Amino acid sequence: MNPRFNLLIGLLFWLFPPFIYAQNAAVLAEDQFQFLEELTASVLEASRIYPKQFISEEFGANNTGGVLIRPGGRNAYPSFWIRDYAMALETGMIPAAEQKHMLILTASTQAGNTWITKGGSMVPVGAVADHIRIDDGQPIYFPGTYSFNDQGTEKWGTLPPYGDQFLFVHMAYTYIKKVGDLSILCEKINGLSLIDRLALSFQVPPAGPKDHLVFASEKFRGVDFGFRDAIQMTGKLLFPSLLKYRAAKELAELYSLIEDPKESFRYQQLAERIKEVIPTEFNDDSGFLKASTRQSSQPDVWGTSLAVYLGVLDGESLAHASEVLAAAYEKGTISYRGNIRHVPLDHDFDETHVWEKSLAAKNTYQNGAFWGTPTGWVAFAIHFNNPHLAQKLALEYLNELKANDFRKGESFGAPYECFDKSGGTQNPVYLTSVACPLAAFRRMAGK
Questions:
Q1: Cα–Cα distance between 144 and 132 in angstroms, integer?
Q2: SS3 assignment for the chain
Q3: What is the mean pLDDT of the chain?
Q4: Per DSSP, what are the bridge partners of residue 153?
Q5: β-bridge mates for residue 370, sequence order
Q6: Do residues 328 and 386 touch, judged by C-beta distance below 8 A?
Q7: Nearest to 434, CA basis, from 71, 173, 24
């Protein structure tokens, strides 16, 4: 691309940031929106577990006293996962009563003290569960198990996954913005107010004292984000730092609403610092932002597109990210049937590894399969550089959903959690695979 044109685009992005510039830039027609909205509503309903609803002999019934939303329908992940639920909130399809129940449940299972699991991992005070059992409401702070007693081994990190702490803030923020009732922030849950629980949760993931970026070492490591909990990353971590940026802005607004300007200002300053350092700290020769600064520091398609979507990148950084994503999409290295890979095909760690260190085989699951969850973020980012390509990606994604729509019968499963080019699929009727793209497409259309 011509450097002068690049400079012009960068200036436009600086003057008109993503949340303004992308308005009324629909990549789907009204009938296509209707299809995706109806499919998302169907997946959401299939993901609900109603009070006393019996799931299986192994997992029992929902005894938590309210509706739970699991990651998907059929037999996918029969527990309440904080991450997947929080990521579906942007659809606006989850009623306030359901939101309140899951918010209070999450808050009530927040770790009240620091303790060591029998597998040698640590649950810090204030940690938010990775998932919560439906039968007895016990919090499971680590991936890889449904057992409270057996949770927490070095395989899945010596600290709980980092992203859930910030998604807890997002749950509270979304609920309060929906109902307009600030009193819940002062409500005591097991002796501690919700606003204090949010602040405590925010502080749990280790971070640099000056740049505030989330950090992991080999000895003290938490999963950077649950959709790659089978990947071992160390150093400064991009994805949870992006979630921390959004959580800081949300806390700044919540403290402003309860008339605490000092705390509001502190969180706003923290968010601005994270935004300032991300483009340089995660700069990579590929043009993408890299996932981490040490182990598994591959170019991160998900993280780069989310940085655009959340408004962390602007000016020349935004223009460059949009250009790189558009070029990679056109080259065929980041997508397949409208779904997105974590790492571009031409930037795998080596011939036998996508990420530097993974529990999954190459080109499967989180280690090279293709996922629907980030498709909307990628389309949103590409649109700044090439609206035609963004629309092409959106239509490829939609066509795959139509071809394999789970409502056609048991032999169909779309939206899948992910799939690979050999025909392998993971978990049918998966909520974030439609909820996240729908939210992004709506935002692009100004809906």
A1: 13
A2: CCHHHHHHHHHHHHHCCHHHHCCCCCCCCHHHHHHHHHHHHHHHHHHEECCCCEEECCCEECCCCCCEECCECCCCCCCEEHHHHHHHHHHCCCCHHHHHHHHHHHHHCCCCCCEECCCECEECCCCCCCEECCCCCCEECCCCCCCCCCCCEHHHCCECCCHHHHHHHHHHHHHHHHHCCHHHHHCEECCEEHHHHHHHHHCCCCECCCCCCEEECCCCCECCCHHHCCECCCEEEHHHHHHHHHHHHHHHHHHHHCCCHHHHHHHHHHHHHHHHHHHHHCECCCCCEECECCCCCCECHHHHHHHHHCCCCCHHHHHHHHHHHHHHHHHCCCEECCEECCCCHHHCCECCECCCCECCCCCECCECCEECCCHHHHHHHHHCCCHHHHHHHHHHHHHHHHHCEHHHCCCCCECCCEECCCCCEECCCECHHHHHHHHHHHHHCCC
A3: 94
A4: 120
A5: 419
A6: no
A7: 71
Return all residues near 343 (Cβ < 8 A) that are at least 6 apart. 298, 299, 300, 301, 354, 355, 368
Is 20 a residue whose pLDDT tops 90? no
Mode of pairing for the β-strands spanning 215-216 and 192-193: unpaired
- Residue type at position 168: F
Cβ contact 238:282 at 8 Å: yes
Lookup: tokens for 328: 């990679």
- Model confidence pTM above 0.85: yes
- Residues 370, 184: Cα–Cα separation, whole Å: 39
Q: Per-residue pLDDT tens for 364-381? A: 999 999 999 999 999 999
The arithmetic mean of pLDDT across residues 329-345, rounded, is 98
Per CATH, the architecture of 50-281 is what? Alpha/alpha barrel (1.50)
Handedness of CA 435, 439, 322, 403 (dihedral sign): positive
Q: Closest Cα to residue 436, out of 46, 36, 18, 28?
A: 36
Residue matched to tokens 């909520």: 431
pLDDT band for position 12 (50/70/90)?
A: low
CATH 1.50.10.10 residue window(s) in the chain: 50-281
Distances (CA, A) of 69 to 94, 275, 290, 416: 9, 32, 32, 17
Looking up tokens 């899945």, which residue turns up? 156
